[in-house]
Amino acid sequence: MYKIVEKREIAPRIKLMKVLAPEVSRKAQPGQFIVLRVDERGERFPLTIADWNPKDGTITLVFLEVGVSTRKLGELNEGDTILDILGPLGNPTEVRNYGVVCVVGGGVGIAAAYPIARAFKKSGNRVVSIIGARSANLLIFEREMADFSDELYVSTDDGTKGHKGFVSDVLKMLLQKEYGFNMVYAVGPAVMMRAVAEVTRPYGIKTIVSLNPIMVDGMGMCGTCRVTVGGRVRFACVDGPEFDAHEVDFGELIKRQTAFIQEERAALEYWEANRRVSRGV
Does pTM top 0.85 for this prediction? Predict the structure, then answer.
């Protein structure tokens, strides 16, 4: 059992939880994730570790309530417990002094980008960060990213804050201004990461993406996170989650992500209906 010591809603449907998990917090590294199970009837699902504190034994998880499992997790409160947490899993980010690094985060992926930006900054890099969301009220971790960024750019799809448009538009603008990025790191929705890869491709800039959005069981057993990278079939959870963006077959990846939308929607509707019945609504 893993006790929740802090819970906050940091944006609509986006929750932050600090959880007591001393073993995980002692070994966590940037880019890694955990797999959790809310209760005995819950499914296993992965979440990137947004932060960790070995001194107080906590890890920080940030998630968007989308399906049944994240909704169930979001209903837990401070003092409640999560049944199972396994981790840290995945290969950590290759952190070294590249020179000038651009860290791009979109949506909930901004929380995953935060420890990456911090690690690059502490390794002596000049860090330029770009974060984006659909609108200003969905923007998260702006202050945290600013703390470890030499420059921070914000974009929103609707223009309610910062640049109106996508993070890839901002990246393109900076490259046109001859920003000399030695490496670009992106994490967020698959379509966003694909757009970033296409922006950097003509420049030949080393670009790394985190494919955590497509993982399910996190152990390489379910096969859901199969993805073609450089012509080879890889598993995001055990071979990644980070890969060379220019070698990822994003078309295949996005198609795989949408394969079970109807089943996921049906499961959520069933869960909500039974939840109303159990509450006598």
Answer: yes
